[in-house]
Amino acid sequence: MNEQKGKVWLVGAGPGDADLITVKAAKLLARAGVVLYDYLVNKDLLDYCQEGCEMIYVGKKKDKHTYPQDELNELLVQHARQGKDIVRLKGGDPFVFGRGVEEILTLIKNDIDYEVVPGITSGVAVPAYMGIPVTARNVASSVTFVTGHPAKNGSNPVDWQSLAKGSDTLVVYMGVTNAGRIAEELVNGGKGEETPVALIRWGTYPQQEMLKSDLKSIEKDMNQAGFKPPALMIVGEVVNFSDQLKPIIQSVNKQELSHV
C-alpha cells in the first residue's frame, strides 16, 4: 500500500500585527491539521485554526531553542508522513532570514510536497509603522537587508565596511546585541558618525518602541535605555522621516525613546 503523505505550507505570518496576515495564510490556517509556529508569531493568528488542530510551538530565542533545527525539520517530515496538512508558520517571510530553505530541502529529500506562502517582512513593515520609509526619492534609492547575528564561531560574514559605501539604507535584522560593533564598522567604512540610526522593538505590536540615535552614540544610548531584543536596526537618512510621517501611523500606540 502506498504511503499517503501530507503537504507542508511554509507560511509567512508577517511582522507581528495580526491584521497583516495574508488572506491565503488565513485560509490555510483554517484548514490545517497541524501548525508549527515560531516565537515571534502573533498568537492571535492561532484563532484561525479549526477545532482539533494540533498546534506545536517550535520557537527559538537567544540560546534557547525549543527544537534544534534538525529536529524541527524531522518533525515536519513525521507529520507529513501521517498524511496531515501542515502549516509551518514563520515570522515575517519564510525566505527572509527564516531558514525556510533548510526546511524545504528536507521536505524535498523526503519527497514531501510543499508550497511557500510569502509574508510581509518586518524589514519593510516595522519601519513603516514608525513613519520610516526604507527608500525615498532624492534621499535613499537603495536598501539592503542584512543579518547582524554572528555565526556560531562568533564571527560575522557581513562586510559592513563595504555596505557602508554600497547602500543608502541598511535594515539590520537581529542586530541589536551587536549594534555597537556594527556602528563602528560602518563608520570605519565611510558612513558619517552623525548618520541617523533607529532601533525598533516589538515593531507593529501595540507595545512597540523606538530609540533614535546616530552611529557615534547608538551603543551608549542603547545601554542607557536598557534597549533589548527583539528589535530591528535601521541606518540611514530615512530615519529622519519619522518626525514628519509619524502622525500618519495611527494603528498602534507608540512609546518613543528619542536620543537625538
Q: Your description of this structure?
A:
27% of the residues lie in helices and 23% in strands. The chain has 260 residues and is of the alpha/beta class. The strands form three sheets. A six-stranded mixed beta sheet has the order 8-9-12-10-11-13, with helices on both faces. The protein has a five-stranded parallel beta sheet with strand order 3-2-6-1-7, with helices on both faces. The model is unreliable at 247-260 (pLDDT under 50). A hairpin with a 7-residue loop joins β10 (196-201) and β11. The chain folds into two domains: 7-117, Cobalt-precorrin-4 Transmethylase, domain 1 (3-Layer(aba) Sandwich); 122-258, Methyltransferase, Cobalt-precorrin-4 Transmethylase, Domain 2.
By helix and strand content, what is the structural category? alpha/beta
Shape: elongated
- In CATH, the architecture of the largest domain is 2-Layer Sandwich
Name the CATH class of the largest domain.
Alpha Beta
Model regions low in confidence, pLDDT < 50 over at least 5 residues? 247-260
What separation lies between the terminal Cα atoms?
68 Å
Largest sheet: 6 strands, mixed
What does the radius of gyration come to? Answer: 20 Å
Strand percentage:
15-25%
* CATH topology description of the largest domain: Methyltransferase, Cobalt-precorrin-4 Transmethylase, Domain 2
What's the total helix number? 8
Summarize the helix and strand pattern as letters.
EHEEEEHEHEHEHEHEEHEHE
